[in-house]
Specification:
By secondary structure, this protein is of the alpha/beta class. It has helices at 3-13, 24-36, 51-61, 76-85, 97-105, 117-125, 142-148, 165-173, 188-192, 197-211, and strands at residues 15-19, 41-45, 67-71, 89-91, 109-111, 113-114, 130-133, 156-159, 179-181.
């Protein structure tokens, strides 16, 4: 899948679950719960032990069913390892030109993080048009996204950090391209209690919100 195809898929699904876990087994259980809830995208963060090996395993297990990205990618070396493992997109908490270059060299999508207008402008100088806004909720949430669209009407934003079921509709109404949701969706406590269905249920609720984002047809 090339960069534009990944970008389109992310926009269609609308939700990017961010998977952080203590180990590979826990992460795999989270991914299964996400898929069971009808969301076909996951972002495996580099904070998961041996994340590239996990990405390879997930890619083999869920061929054609799951768009797998790597998150919290900080260096060119990490980006290369994740792309070699089978990641289709790369997400960073901030702007790293070497990470963007690594993805671009493979024809894959890089989604850098930014927070301020200055950081967003720096990202556009790297040719980026899809940007993760992190940590968004602490900067004003959906109102902040709406404000950013004033000076940057041609950019697409994925707010992350504090996004949840309770405010997802507000973020879409503010013009968000998609939403990055971590612990508010990927509830490790539920997994550890043996209740992965809680994650699946949350995914279904979010999918319903996504389906309503453009209003009645």
């Amino acid at each position: 899948m090339n960069a534009e195809e990944s970008r389109k898929r992310i926009g269609e699904v609308g939700i990017v679950p961010v998977v952080r876990a203590a180990n590979s087994s826990e992460a795999q259980e989270a991914v299964r719960a996400i898929l069971a809830g009808g969301i076909s995208i996951v972002e495996i963060t580099m904070t998961v032990p041996d994340a590239p090996a996990l990405i390879t395993q997930l890619a083999r297990e869920h061929t054609d069913k799951l768009l797998i990205g790597a998150g919290t990618v900080l260096t060119h070396e990490q980006a290369t390892a994740c792309l070699d493992a089978g990641a289709e997109f790369i997400v960073s908490p901030g702007l790293s030109a070497p990470v963007i270059a690594a993805a671009r060299a493979r024809g894959k999508l890089a989604i850098p993080g930014a927070l301020t207008p200055t950081e967003i402008m720096a990202a556009t100088r790297e040719g980026v048009r899809l940007i993760k806004i992190f940590p968004c909720e602490s900067m004003g949430g959906s109102k902040y996204i709406k404000s950013l669209h004033g000076p940057f009407p041609d950019l697409d934003f994925i707010p992350t950090g504090g996004v949840s079921i309770s405010n997802a509709a507000e973020y879409f109404a503010a013009g968000s391209f998609a939403l990055g949701i971590g612990s508010e969706l990927v509830d490790l406590k539920s997994l550890r209690r043996g209740e992965p269905q809680n994650i699946s249920d949350s995914c279904r609720k979010l999918a319903e919100i996504v389906s309503q984002r453009f209003g009645p047809s």
